[in-house]
Amino acid sequence: xxxxxxxxxxxxxxxxxxxxxxxxxxxxxxxxxxxxxxxxxxxxxxxxxxxxxxxxxxxxxxxxxxxxxxxxxxxxxxxxxxxxxxxxxxxxxxxxxxxxxxxxxxxxxxxxxxxxxxxxxxxxxxxxxxxxxxxxxxxxxxxxxxxxxxxxxxxxxxxxxxxxxxxxxxxxxxxxxxxxxxxxxxxxxxxxxxxxxxxxxxxxxxxxxxxxxxxxxxxxxxxxxxxxxxxxxxxxxxxxxxxxxxxxxxxxxxxxxxxxxxxxxxxxxxxxxxxxxxxxxxxxxxxxxxxxxxxxxxxxxxxxxxxxxxxxxxxxxxxxxxxxxxxxxxxxxxxxxxxxxxxxxxxxxxxxxxxxxxxxxxxxxxxxxxxxxxxxxxxxxxx
Length: 383
Known about the structure:
The protein has 383 residues and is an alpha/beta fold. The chain has helices spanning 38-56, 68-75, 86-99, 113-119, 148-155, 170-180, 187-196, 222-234, 243-253, 260-270, 272-277, 339-354, 371-380; strands at residues 2-8, 11-19, 25-32, 60-65, 101-106, 136-139, 160-163, 200-203, 206-210, 216-219, 255-256, 299-305, 317-323, 329-334, 359-361. It is built from 13 helices and 15 strands.
């Protein structure tokens, strides 16, 4: 049995679909005669379906619904905190006790489309191919009153079996939009699906994404993505790469999923073999080796400061040099920095004033590593 409820400001409805062992499909649609919240509508749909199952004397029933709140409350995972839901909760448990062997499971909304369509019968409805009409009834469930003392006795009369269903696949939203033009109700998801959809194609039952290189990558679900990471990272040909390298390798293998960068990094970090045999990246501390000059003006440090706020003379940069031995500094302001300015500064403000140094230390920028600087070094024989 699949159930679903729908409530909005214009009314409320419930949909129930039974699948029998003989492959018969029994759809039911109920128009609720009162306005209610969506959670109450979900409970109404469940109870109407259970009452129908009791009338049909179905002792073995598997129930599926897309309402996490209703399913988890009946499974005991969530507490029933809202007073208006307590009567429906107790009545539903009582009906499940009448039926005997009942299991209830949560499924994604994509797997509950028929019951959802029946609940929204006024606007959208999907009918089985061998049926041309369904019955639409008007109904409202009034649950009986329960005493707190009898609740504990009834809880011991039956068992509920818990089965986990995997969470919603990210590919379904894009496939629904590409095939049927269907968009989710959330406005943010609508914008996201419309923005991403042009890069996807759906071909022969498989979703592909066009990469920046023009190659179509096969889109993977959660379980397939984990299997691909295990094979690429630690499989027969796996090299236990780091997270970013693992991501690029999986893309080269022709696979894609939205969170693959984060998943690959987390997978590589959790790999036990990598933790045992990986490189020790935190090196032990070592003493510093300072640059020591033997005599004054033997070694100079040269660098550019700026750009700075423009001065009254239009200067934006400062070319500064510092002697490593005496800490003496020389500096000139510049409107723009050119290699000719650097060569003239070294020749006029360092060599002609303090003599030829043994070496000058720079950050190897383009202004300090060029043909003009090489000629100056060869002419005065310094490094």
